[in-house]
Amino acid sequence: MFAITVRRHATISRFFSAVCDESRCSMLGKPPFRRLGGPMAWSERPITPDTEGSQGVTVRPGRMKDVPGVWKLTEEVKWNKHQDMIETLFKMCENGWNIAEKDGDVVGCYLSHEFDSGLKTAGHFIVSPKMQGRGVGAKLMSKYFEEFGDRNIYAGAISPLLDTYEKYSGAPLSKGDTGGNYYGVFKNIPLPPDMEQKYHLIDFRHVDMSDLIGYDTSYHVVPRPEMLKIWLGQTTAKSLVLLEKGKIAGYGSIRPAMNGFYLGPLYAENTVGTMVLLKGLIDLIPRDSSVDFFLPHSNEAGREILKANESTIGLYDTFHKFATKSYIPVPKWNNVFALLSNECALC
């Protein structure tokens, strides 16, 4: 079962092919770092002041039936999400969504997830462009801090929003690691010759889940079994485990987005392992597909891979991880090539 060869994953699911045919964004003849119909970089978005114009807006707990409304919000702000991914985030963070609603329409949202009594995460904070500047965001954030303000809340944000979050937290934020939101086509993965032979790639369902959870916990300290099972098991996702001498040396997942595909998480013990795992995941999708991913700047493999693909992959947002009280990075942050989802403030 654990042969020391890299298994090729040439088979592409019908769903993956269909999504790619419908929404692939070709990079040929276009600026490589601009999505076609994709999100506007946060640095280009106006940050409007809060006002008291949110009359008629109510904030309530989210329900599964809100998935289409939240997905519509992601389209309005041009986040590159597929509806399946939004549904998966709802399942992962059950009872963690809050919805701003006006006249029956979803006009804002955020999600949260509780790991333990002292750790809470927050993310996926969106306000409809039609309602921005009317106090909807202020209403959502006030609700969150009213419920959880005494907790140590972890989150991720692009640089221009740090001051806004600090304003609502009422105290300086504890800022941590940085990274980038990248988008483009992987044309070249600079693997040293013959190094692939050290590893074996298998579908995550062929690995003892307790072993995979244990590996994930080596990064996060706090176990997250249900979250991992739901995310990796999403129907439209492809998730692989990297083995070295029969032991888990990494794992990763890729799934359809509205434009191309979303990569994350991708964890591995070293640079070569990262490249082998990345190549295995990229082999699962149609050639020259665009890929969206959140990359920590401290990842060595990431620097090498970006350099090898500098004409086809680029940065459009820089993000900071932070906490409202005390930021403690994950122990193996440097081994993280791609985050699970920065929108839910989790690796």
TrEMBL record:
As one GO molecular function, the record gives: acyltransferase activity, transferring groups other than amino-acyl groups
Q: Which domain of life is it from?
A: Eukaryota
**Which InterPro entries does the UniProt entry name for this protein?**
Acyl/Acetyltrans_Enzymes, Acyl_CoA_acyltransferase, GNAT_dom, YitH/HolE_GNAT
In this chain the N-acetyltransferase domain maps to 57-192
PROSITE patterns in alphabetical order: GNAT
Q: Could you tell me which residues belong to the region Disordered?
A: 39-60
Query: Which PANTHER family does this UniProt record tie to the protein?
Result: SLL0310 PROTEIN
Name listed for the protein in its UniProt record: Uncharacterized protein LOC106154423
Please report the organism this UniProt entry assigns to the protein.
Lingula anatina (Brachiopod)
At the highest ranks, the source species' classification is:
Eukaryota, Metazoa, Spiralia, Lophotrochozoa, Brachiopoda
